[in-house]
Amino acid sequence: MAAMTKALPRRLVGLASLRAVSTSSMDTLPKQVKIVEVGPRDGLQNEKNIVSTPVKIKLIDMLSEAGLSVIEATSFVSPKWVPQMADHAEVLKGIQKFPGITYPVLTPNLKGFEAAVAAGAKEVSIFGAASELFTKKNINCSIEESFQRFDAILKAAQSANISVRGYVSCVLGCPYEGKISPAKVAEVTKKLYSMGCYEISLGDTIGVGTPGIMKDMLSAVMQEVPPAALAVHCHDTYGQALANTLMALQMGVSVVDSSVAGLGGCPYAQGASGNLATEDLVYMLEGLGIHTGVNLQKLLEAGNFICQALNRKTSSKVAQATCKL
Amino acid sequence: MAAMTKALPRRLVGLASLRAVSTSSMDTLPKQVKIVEVGPRDGLQNEKNIVSTPVKIKLIDMLSEAGLSVIEATSFVSPKWVPQMADHAEVLKGIQKFPGITYPVLTPNLKGFEAAVAAGAKEVSIFGAASELFTKKNINCSIEESFQRFDAILKAAQSANISVRGYVSCVLGCPYEGKISPAKVAEVTKKLYSMGCYEISLGDTIGVGTPGIMKDMLSAVMQEVPPAALAVHCHDTYGQALANTLMALQMGVSVVDSSVAGLGGCPYAQGASGNLATEDLVYMLEGLGIHTS
Q1: So where are chain A's domains?
Q2: Could you report the predicted ipTM of this complex, rounded to two decimals?
Q3: What positions does the domain Pyruvate carboxyltransferase occupy (chain B) (predicted)?
Q4: How far is A124 from chain B (nearest CA, A)?
């Protein structure tokens, strides 16, 4: 481990001297991007190997030290459904809460919301979808019924002065319905925004999207919701995540979800890769001259730590290139 | 193996029904992209395990059947330097030559060129670089001296009616020099084009580039060489290959090099990944409504 820590700075110094930062006028690109780190939740949730509470806490603390400003810490979901997240209260209570960093947690229902608040949550996330079939199979109700459930959470959150982030799944395609109409995504996103979500993360849940579809979808959504309230959440199942994210940035999105080490898998495609890797995202943003606030070296250390704990190789190309095997 | 062959069609059917094709007006994107498959050469060359001649031949035949129109078959380089390519003549002679498909081979010098022609080559590739240090370390001469070597090949190729494709390495960064100026890339590219290369492939050899740098570099090069004569060759060492390729398409490039299964590695970054994977490139192009075959 010590040898690896020594190796990292050398390679990164090499990296810094190698890399140019673009000077071309990329007028449509944001000057700053907020990265929402979902590794501890979306990433771990889809990993086969269960990791202990101290490991989860250490991961989140390392991510905090890496300069990320939003780290999705856990999910207040029933352990029956997601065993990996069974220790949600302990994790939320155990992590260091750095000033200037928020630690949202998933709350699929009012019960989960109340448990989250009791454990000290200051921000929560709720999960909608642009597909009726996916909603039915995932949470056993229609999209309309899911809005009723969310409304209960949003009202309670408003009373408790707690921010709510909305997610829309399947925005570029659904494992059950196939193609998803941009108009439907816009409708669901608008609804969540009007109900009180401060930000909506648009997720290519099964990673099937390509840049043109991303553009079509965002064009429709941006007619209904201001770009500043939107985020993209791309899965790399078919290797398209970074290209899709670039397109979203070109369209004016300035919030991007990603997962350290590209943690996560895809329950619908066995053996497929997971989320966009935060390291690879940061690499691109830095090269584009876009401010992120992230210390790539510390991020790589966090990724290395969790991969060792999970006994898996990283899915981040940057990590593969900079760490000796 | 039979079970796997059965599984593939099911998943691909599922894939076709899942995926939408963009209808947005992506005016700046080409309607058609020519893919140059470099797996059998650039890919295999950087793989640790040596594969047999029959395996190489079968790979190339399978790639031909997959509908690729350009497949870089091998490299007429000394086996002392690149053991994987020692069987270059046998491979070139052994593969099926489908009509409508070209099988260029690398020829680092006149001797290699002559051996390639003797083995039946109809198209060759030559490799320049935008970095003096890289050229020095790679082929032990200056960029100017490398042009003299290429000139010999280009003249011989012209006499023999053989097409020559030029490569420029390190266009977005060099393992020795670091940053590479777009002006230098433009200068080297223009030289190769004026010497007679019908197409120049611009390679991010160590994969360090990001989309803004790709744009800067192409802006400079396109002032000197027509976009139709340009290709990009992105390595995925830092996961940037597809995003960089997308930027190149947005800039008007319509020829992209890639490697089946993302074969290859990076001699400068142990454990790093290799070329842009052809499967992932095709996936994106199809989703964009761009014709590939």
Answers
A1: 34-322
A2: 0.90
A3: 33-293
A4: 31
